[in-house]
Amino acid sequence: MKILLIGASGTIGAAVETALKPEHTVISANFSGGDVQVDLGNTESINAMFNSVGKVDAVISTAGLASFAALNELTEADYQLALQNKLMGQINLIRIGQQFVNTGGSVTLTSGVLSREPMHGSSVISMANGALESFVKAAALELDTLRVNVVAPIFVKETMAMMGMDTTSGLSAADTANAYVAAVTGDMSGKTLDAPGFV
Fold this sequence. Notes:
Layout: E1 2-6, H1 11-20, E2 25-30, E3 36-37, H2 43-53, E4 56-61, H3 76-95, E5 101-110, H4 123-139, E6 146-152, H5 157-162, H6 173-185, E7 192-194
């Protein structure tokens, strides 16, 4: 398959690319670097990426920006970042990308466990994650030519270690990548794939 991977330079994205490359052609898209550049918060940039890459069999997004901060410290700009980048940026990969995905192909987005297991400081991220999961569930009912799913990772061990956190409760990026491979190679649609369920 020809797969467009957005966020390929990130910890999860790099693991997804490693998992897929032996059997598929992976085109990497990042804010900077990669095979093609894209700014998820900019619709014109998303259009330009798809026009540059052309038809694909699958699109995967492991990207999306949102702030982590206490509720009373969040600014309107923090909410707008989450809405425009992590939420609408990924939704636009379906809205715009559906005309570039071959029949029977798929688009896989990224939410996260904070949609259903929030913590102090996660309100904006939890908001975007929950909205993505609801959108995919509803959009799948109306999309006849492609499948749409969302992967919900938990904290990644590599990121936890970088932040000096105890990694016991985390999941490695390589294990997390299994959920994305399942979304691309499976036949499900409208589903939220919890990453720990694919280890």
